[in-house]
Design brief:
Pfam families: HAD_2. Homotrimer. The protein is an alpha/beta fold. The protein folds into 2 domains: about 140 residues, HAD superfamily/HAD-like (Rossmann fold, 3-Layer(aba) Sandwich), CATH 3.40.50; about 80 residues, DNA polymerase, domain 1 (Orthogonal Bundle). About 45% of the residues lie in helices and about 10% in strands. The chain contains 8 helices and 8 strands. Helix 1 packs across helix 4. It is elongated. The two termini are about 20 Å apart. Bound molecules: 2-phosphoglycolic acid and magnesium ion. The site of magnesium ion has 9 residues, from loops.
Length: about 240
C-alpha cells in the first residue's frame, strides 16, 4: 500500500477513524492521577506511570484489573488466590474510578504535536471523521471537548458503544456503517496493536503513530501499513 508516498486524496481513501488515547491525546497523566485517587480509596499505594503505560489501551475494566493484579502480586503470588482478591476489590475500585474520572479528565493530559494540523488536513478533504476509542464514550466526548478537538468528528464511539472492544473488528465495522463508508476506503490511525489488529480484521488500511502506548512493545513490529511520527504527516 502506497499510503505514505501518495497525496491522501490520491489514495482512493475517503474517510478516517482515529484513536484517542496515545494517538491524539497523551492521557497517561490522567490515568496515573485517577488511579492514584482510586487506589487511595481502596487503601492501596499508587502505581508508577511506566507500569500504567503498559496497561492502557484495552479499556477501563482491563486497566483496573491489571493495576490491582500488579499491586497485589507480592502479597498474593498465587494467581488463583490473587484473582479472588482482585474480584472482591473490583466493584469498589470500579465505582471509585468512575467517581473520580470526570474531575481528572483532561487535566493531566495534552494534545500531541501535529494533531491539529493532521485533523485540519483531513477536514479540508471533506472526509467524514470518527473517533473510536476503548475509553468509555462519555469520557471520550468530554476529553475531545476539553481539548477543542470535538468539532472535527461526526461520531465518537467508546469502549462501551458496541458489544466488543478493539482489537475485535466489530467497533470498526460499526463505525464504518455510521460513517457510511467502506472499510477498504477508510483509513484507521492508531497507536497500538489493538488498532492495527482490529483494522486488519475489518479490512481497513492502518497507520500507526510512533509515540503512543503499545503495551510496552515496539510499535514498528506491529503489522500495519505504515508509521508516522506525527499526524501532521497526513498533510
Ligand atoms: O483503553 C483506553 O481507555 C484507551 O484506549 P484507546 O487507545 O483506544 O483510546
Ligand atoms: Mg490508543
Amino acid at each position: 500500500m502506497a499510503l505514505l508516498t501518495l497525496p491522501l486524496d490520491a489514495t482512493g481513501l475517503d474517510a478516517a477513524i482515529i484513536d484517542l488515547d496515545g494517538t491524539m491525546v497523551d492521557t497517561l497523566g490522567d490515568f496515573v492521577e485517577v488511579l492514584r485517587r482510586m487506589l487511595a480509596d481502596v487503601a492501596l499505594p499508587p502505581v508508577a506511570a511506566a507500569e500504567v503505560e503498559r496497561m492502557v489501551g484495552k479499556g477501563t475494566e482491563h486497566l483496573i484489573a491489571s493495576v490491582l493484579h500488579h499491586l497485589l502480586a507480592p502479597a498474593h503470588p498465587e494467581l488463583a488466590e490473587r484473582q479472588a482478591v482482585v474480584e472482591a476489590l473490583f466493584p469498589r475500585a470500579w465505582a471509585s474510578y468512575q467517581h473520580h474520572y470526570p474531575a481528572v479528565n483532561g487535566q493531566f493530559s495534552r494534545v500531541y504535536p501535529g494533531v491539529l494540523e493532521g485533523l485540519e488536513a483531513l477536514h479540508a478533504l471533506h472526509w467524514p471523521l470518527a473517533c473510536l476509542t476503548n475509553k468509555p464514550t462519555a469520557f471520550a466526548v468530554a476529553l475531545l471537548q476539553a481539548k477543542k478537538l470535538d468539532r472535527f468528528f461526526t461520531h465518537v464511539f467508546g469502549g462501551d458503544a458496541f458489544a466488543q472492544k478493539k482489537p475485535d473488528p466489530l467497533p470498526l465495522r460499526k463505525t464504518c456503517e455510521a460513517l457510511r463508508t467502506a472499510p477498504a476506503r477508510t483509513l484507521v490511525v492508531g497507536d497500538s496493536s489493538n488498532d492495527a489488529q482490529a483494522a486488519r480484521a475489518a479490512g481497513c488500511p492502518v497507520l500507526l503513530v510512533t509515540y503512543g502506548y503499545n503495551h510496552g512493545q515496539p510499535v514498528r513490529q506491529v503489522d500495519a501499513d505504515g508509521w508516522i511520527e506525527s499526524l501532521a504527516a497526513l498533510r
